[in-house]
Amino acid sequence: MQKAFDQEGYFIVRSLLGAEEMQALGSAIDRDEGIRAHAFDIGDGEGRSSKLSLWSHPGSDVTGMLARCEKVAGTMEKVLGGEVYHYHTKLMMKEARTGGSHVWHQDYGYWYKNGCLFPDMGSVFIAIDKTDKENGCLQVIRGSHKLGRIEHIMVGGQTGADVARIEEAKKVLELVYVELDPGDALFFHANVLHKSDRNDSDRRRWVFIISYNRASNNPFKKHHHPCYTPLHKVPNSAILECKNIDDITGKDFMDPSTDETIKPEKK
């Protein structure tokens, strides 16, 4: 995993979450209230949108245990080479027939603007539904983290990487469609170029994404995501042992109007 992360910028762990863990996660997010009540629309500049709910702190519910457990946070600490803290978690909901696309970008392309000096950051992308080409799965450019940070601009309601540079990168690096079954996870570096197409299928495509920052990379300015906050890791067993299904206390959900890197859809 370390070699893949260093050389290719990512690796996939199949069945990171088992059936019972996925059921527990589903109970926490598949409700109109709670986490989903804080969702907002992100446009793709082509008339479509996806829903996003984003929070700064893990909290003490099932989703918090997932973000703090050893096989997620502990693995990210190992591949990033040091202590990490929770930067944010988001539930991305791309609905059937209506879900919008996401343009090519690097996460560090906009985290850079938040005052993070180094790209010592990464995310864990967990499939809630089956994700494939048909319903707009994630696409990555293998090894693109070695390009360094690419300039980003606003594209529709999103922050996207320089298109001309993307096209040149695709000539020399491989484009990979990340097809996942529920419970599979992609661990990837903050400079990996990635995108997703719109969902034209009859199936929804929901994903759960947990992002981390190295403790040594504490942002030099306050912004809409947290500065260094110690992460209290828990054993993997805490996911199933957690009885807090709908307690969202302390998560600090993001108000999209405070984020300079996205433009929420106006109703």
From TrEMBL:
Protein's UniProt name: Phytanoyl-CoA dioxygenase family protein
Organism the protein comes from: Patiria miniata
Highest taxon listed in the record's lineage: Eukaryota
Cofactor(s) this protein requires: Fe cation
